[in-house]
Amino acid sequence: MITQLSAAELAKKIASKEISCAEALDAHLDRIEKLDEQYGCFLAVDRERAYEDAKSAQAIVDRGEAGPLTGVPLAVKDNISTDGIETTCASKILKGYIPPFDATVVTKSKAAGMVILGKTNLDEFAMGTSTENSAYKITRNPWDTTRAPGGSSGGSAACVSAELAPLALGSDTGGSIRQPASLCGIVGFKPTYGRCSRYGLVAFGSSLDQIGPLTRTVEDAALLAEVTSGHDPMDSTSIEMAPISSANLKNGSLKGLKAALPKELFADAINSGVRAQIESAIEVLKNEGVEFTEVSIPSIEYGVTTYYIIAPAEASSNLARFDGIRYGPRSEGKGHINVVERTRAEGFGHEVKARIMIGTYALSAGYYDAFYLRAQQVRALMKQEFDKVYAEYDFILSPTSPVTAFKLGELVDDPLALKLLDFCTIPANMGGMPGISLNCGLAEGLPVGLQLLGAPLQDEKLLQIAYGVEQSLPNATQRPQIP
After folding, report:
1. Is the pLDDT confidence value at 331 over 90?
2. pTM of the shown model
3. What is the spatial distance between Cα 54 and Cα 26, in angstroms, rounded to a whole number?
4. Which of 375, 404, 430 finishes a domain?
């Protein structure tokens, strides 16, 4: 069945002309039409444009120039700009906004012959951990449709898990790729900050945001990262480095590698079922020759607190442009100030308003030094502590999420509990380091994510390690029972 193939397998069949680009697209569009009503993954599907992409991809194949992902369908998180396709960030305030340009990652994906399926659901402006904060729909976890897929890239994670798309792009500000990947039992990769262009990504936290792949295998994640990464002069934070290479992905060995286990990431908050699966995976990797050592990184304890000062502060600044005058629908009112007040009150959801207010407060006169400046100092300390660990160890291993997929609505009235679920993923964003989550088994029938973190700019090494880990774990590529 076409939709069950990995992206790498599908691309090989397309290159050999065993499957046409149109047939690959047909299979996924048909599945979306039949199943997405129960999963709620997509906010927009542009069939006409997708067939145009497929036609262009087939021309590449017919010329004998097919690349490793030519003709493969790709879903795109709806905070990444797509020329001619509505980009709402799952917010009412951007309803009807159609960008006049593609984000660099979309431009690169099209140049590689990939086919854009549509735009996936998310927590509004990527602010959330469950994809329940979308203004348009709730996304459901393919393993159990009564449960959340995680967030904020929940639509991208769920559509890959449910085989509605072989690949998807998400964004990760505090774990928004890796956490939903964990809850949906797939692979989620956050590259080093700056290795993948953010041009065309609607900014939430500019010093934290990073675009990355959600896939069903580590190989697919590496291939998509290779296509979408590389220096971009349109992004001032883009690092002048070559794209992430997948050339040596399968050439590594786990034997003799040194892994650090930060005790702060194995705290009491880790669910017993999650802990058991992680410990089981560690035993498997020990047998493969990995040497594990428990370490302490004290600043992790302050990660969530620090993040929820810095990220809202940056959001307060970035979201100031959404006023109904430059973007989005405009509410009626008397005078400029009243119009802007009403537009933002009616256009933003509760979570976005809360974070804007927190961020504005943290940046205000009299509180800047006490909150924002102090948070940046803790962030610098955290980076120093992680750098010391990477000087001695090849990678860090931890759970991705302290829990498996939780019931929809279960944590809606406890926003602090939702935020605390990010404590394992936030450090990677604070230090700009690469991180990847892959499935390592099931706890009570739900997937458990294993997180690997690497030193900044060591993306290729981390992907190589992750590939070796995936090959060693017997349950890494388990799929949910879906129609």
Report:
1. no
2. 0.97
3. 10
4. 375
